[in-house]
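Progress narrative, work stream C.
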Amino acid sequence: MTRYWLEIQKAAADFKLDPLLVEAVVMQESAGNTDAFRFERDFYNRYLKPNKLYQGMNPRRISSSYGLMQCMWPVAIERGLDIKLPPEMLFIPEIGLKWGCKQLGYLRDWADGGWPEVSVDQRLRATLASYNGGRGANKPSDSPLRNRLYAESVLKHYQLLAKEHSTPA
């Protein structure tokens, strides 16, 4: 269980997400550390370097994962974050959770809306796999999902957290 449970509950509710699932993503991504940071060099070279919007910006700042949900600044920009706000704002728990949950909700809606014939479990796994590695080769109909091990790890965190939350302190 993280110390950010109240913030997680609020952010999850704002995007109609299961707060235990959000907390499981937080545990997988940052182990509950709001100052978690990871430079994603390949993401920069593949997606940001050729994009005029990001030219002249510091690659280490704009192509890194930040905060509790390890949300990437360009992903938050795609979901509506003002580009004038610095990437480091994602270290703030409420801000990082908001944009991480917005992305997770977007991916859930994508998976649920495009593949109604696929099981709920497979759509959830595709949502989680896509949160980690993008939608390519992580569609609900893909077998196996490219990032299936990530999804399985989040679901293990989910099971452990469900037990922790149901056990009286």
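Work stream C, second folded protein:
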Amino acid sequence: MIRRITKAVAAIGFGHGISIISNVLLVPLFLRFWTSDLYGEWLVLSSVVAYLSTLDMGMQTYLVNRLTQKHQADDVAGYRDLQHSGLALYLAIATVGTVIVFSLSCAVPLKSWLRLEHTGTWTARIVVTLLGAQLLWALPVNFVSAIYQTMGNLARSEWRYQLHRAGVAASTAIALVLRPTPLTLACVQLIPLIASAFFVILDATRRFPQLRFGLRNARSGLVFSIVRPSLLFAGILLAQAVTVQGSILVISSVLGASAVALFVITRTLANLSRQVVGLLSTATWTEVTILEAKGDQSALRFVHHLLLALAGAGSSAVAAALWFEGPSVIAAWTSGKIAPNPMLLRLLLAQTILGTPWIAASMIPAASNRHRRLSAMYLASSVIGVTLAAVGVRLIGIDAVPIGLFVGELIACYHFVPRDACGMMGQEYREYMVRVWSSFLATAVLAGFVAWLVHELAAARSAPLRWALSGASTTVVALVFGWALWLSPRERNAVRGRVFAILQGQPSV
């Protein structure tokens, strides 16, 4: 188990590295060839179609969980029927969705609605259609590539996905250098998706000939049985889209495209702390599905506590370093073309890092297909948060957005999500919350103190050296506290034993 998680972490970590590198390189590249206003309009157009990802309706998550369970039960016929039915549904959604996106883009006045001053009417329509097609056709491609994950090889599915993302970043960079127009960018980003689809179909057919992709075994009754429970996952995806894209649209409508560029760049940097949680949650997802299917609550608690320790320590280290060094990172990142807003950055960091415990706990019901209440909590959090942000941004400006999102999460998620997770793991809730929050706050405060100390003592040093010193020192301190505070002596011994077994070439269970 530890070996599989480690391989998955490596694949997902590569993807996060690609994301960081592409952001570091692409933002200055965008601002070199485009004005900040045109870049802001590109972000707004991307946000308009981002809601199309919710047409997945949570089916990817639900189907992968179900297919993993069927593989564990050696139900090849049931696996094939479910796989073909899911693929038929995805192809229908992608085809119909693309037609609808083009029709709507032609029917509505995008230019006036989105306050586009530098993007032409037909350019906006075609860009929206191509970006929408990219998201829609990624749905069946991602489902097809999940075959590796359902077999217990999450790492291979993730490598495919992360290499696709790397291809999108590379094609974007090339297009910006050779022909920096929104239309060119929207076109070239489809190339990696097409290449990825062909690779997966050929490779998976060779590896799993008994599970050939197709539509022959699709069952209409099975298709409809997929949709209903998947709608609960759709609530989670919709909530995430409302939070991420709704914030952009609120800022765009009130403050304009330049404010959108500032917010997106600042949020991207602040979200580095939450990416730690996302990386580890994704890496342990398949293991949680398997353990819950077996009813092994003891192992489930161990995996979750290990996730919490690593995620809590990692997110604390990243947030502490960026709390003091983040403004200088933004200034250097954008070559001074976008002035950093330290208060906005710190509010976003606080909002993301304080959500670490409930985000980590949400993986337990989500990976187990027991997510009815989780979906409602997610959606309530997003609606409350974006509504408060929309009201507050007119009163106090852009700083209202992270405040509103934090209040939404506090009301809907901080208590209810961990409580449900404890019930599924067979763990006493009050003891769990005391342990998690005491360890988390102690780690975050100490990491913050170390980051402040480095910032003050190394103030005369160059910015890159100060960033490196701050990141390294907070990481060491947070990991030491994560090991000592988050894990019990029994859990620490279990980790040592499994790591030693891997180093000695023994199987890891």
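The two ends are 5 Å apart (CA to CA). No further action is required on this item.
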